[in-house]
Design a protein that fits this description.
Helices cover 35% and strands 0% of the residues. It has 43 residues and is an all-alpha fold. The protein has one domain.
Length: 43
Amino acid sequence: MNVGYDNIQFTKAPNVLRGMGLTHLAKNEKAKKQLAEKGMAPE
């Protein structure tokens, strides 16, 4: 099964994403809300 990055409750610091060449990835609103509820919202 393949799960898209935009729908997972996982976040990396912007500098880490840049270093990995993954700055094009973004979270969808559901994942952002779930992270925010846990105090882990991406910046």
